[in-house]
Amino acid sequence: MASVEVTASLSEFKKNPLATIAAGNGAAVAILDGDEPVFYCVPAPAYEAMIDRLDDLELKAIADARANDPVIKITLAELS
User: Fold this and answer.
1) Residue 1 above 80 pLDDT?
2) Which superkingdom does the taxonomy of this entry point to (predicted)?
């Protein structure tokens, strides 16, 4: 997520949390106390996409770390 384009005050969020989340149109909404963000409302699909991306980055790091490991040739029969 590059940036948050929708913000709401803490009092707006308390009055109507679902409307505040809906205002983000599927993106995160920054909840502000004064001028400072105190938390982000992230809809489930956006959160799931974020977690999937983190998983992909972790797997890529593992693959990159093993890229120069020696290759061991085996057959499918040896795997069973």
Assistant:
1) no
2) Bacteria
